[in-house]
Amino acid sequence: MSGALTIREGDDMRHYLTILTAALAIVLIAGMPTAATTIADVKLRCPACGHKFKAGVIASTNNFGGQDRDFYSHASGFPPILIYPITCRRCLYSGYRDDFEIDELDDETRALLRSRLTLPENLPPPDDSTGLPAWARYDLIILSAEIRGLSLDYLIDAALCASWAVREDAAPAQPWGDHYWNCAVNYTDSMMKELSPEGQNRALRDVALARQLVPRLQSVPNGSRLCATLGVIILLRKHGELTEAMDLCRLVEPLVSHEDFMQFSDSMRVSNERERRYQQIALTYIEKSFGEIAPFEGPAGRLYLAGELCRRLERYDQALQYFRQAAQATAIPEGLDEWIVEQQALVTNILHKGTTPDEPPPKDHPPLD
Question: Based on the domain organization, do 32 and 68 belong to the same domain?
Fold first, then answer.
């Protein structure tokens, strides 16, 4: 992990992921330099089976791509979220660098790992030439952590990371070739310059731009409509706005062949279901972390995150409850209060009208717990 945050020996490293990404956002907004994403090879030994191997770890990174409403910070360049998870190809034990620098696990834990670690979605076993996708490695991290009895904070972060890894690796199928894809990106880039949504947070500006462009798509000339529609879908999918991205697929269908449309929409559906599966797992852990004190009690940031995950899972009534409770929490971090108000208004409008409201100018303050 980047040296931007000091981790005490024995701490669960991923407990700090959300805090680290938010801290990086503060660095960006303050105008201080952040490093490009760089990777270094390290030698590791699996504490479950003793296998020795090399793995890439993040030496430095950045968040020039902005921060999504569920706290995911996008990097400029290769996404570090796809590098963090490490899997032993011999036994499938998985974790982060710190999880491979511990003492050998006890016999009982090793036996449980051998019996319970299985690849998700019937993926083929990794070998020297083909690794596992990052989301699958996070899936194995969740299983490994549960067997080891690690904290709920660790599990929450691992599940969030799995959903974010799907997001970063979820480009829909491109049956029309690179030409249309490049045109789609060029269209949104040009509209970004023309409309110039407010704010420094690139992620929020992307989503705001996409929502501004949706009403315009039907008036785009037929020869350019496919590129324009794909461009908006790409922006929404990039930031995990799955409901809106999938809804726009209906505009693609009359513009392409049935076969191409099915290939495109099926790839969208599969990646959406996968991302939401890990969002649901994260939400389950978050709700468990609230304990039995009372429904919807907890720190403001965690209540907000529960609401945001419910929104993305289309559980709008529950999302609204969480946002309202977050607004009533004590010691709300600066910036999070605006996000709570904005997302509460978004959900309220969906419940009342079934539509997505025009976004207010996005606030750039990152939410912090």
Answer: yes
Task: For the beta carbon of residue 319, count every other beta carbon within 10 angstroms.
Answer: 25
Could you tell me if 63 and 186 lie in one domain?
no
CA nearest to 210, candidates 183, 235, 238, 176: 235
> DSSP assignment of 141-188, as one string?
HHHHHHHHT--HHHHHHHHHHHHHHHHHT-PPP-TT-HHHHHHHHHHH
Amino acid at 323: F
Question: Which tokens is 158 given?
Answer: 């691992």
Give yes or no: residues 22 and 139 share one domain.
yes
Provide Rg for the chain, Cα atoms. 21
Within-domain flag for 87:
yes
Inside any domain, residue 5: no
Can you tell me the distance from the alpha carbon of 126 to that of 148, in angstroms, rounded to the nearest whole number? 23
- 163 and 21 in one domain? yes
- Percent of the chain residues past pLDDT 90, beyond the cut: 71
- Counting as low any pLDDT under 50, the low residues of the chain are 1-33, 293-295, 359-369
Q: Are 91 and 48 in contact (CB under 8 A)?
A: yes
Give the chain's domain count: 3
**pLDDT digits over 92-127, tens only?**
999 999 999 999 999 999 999 999 999 999 999 887
Query: Is residue 63 domain-shared with residue 143, that is, in the same domain?
Result: yes
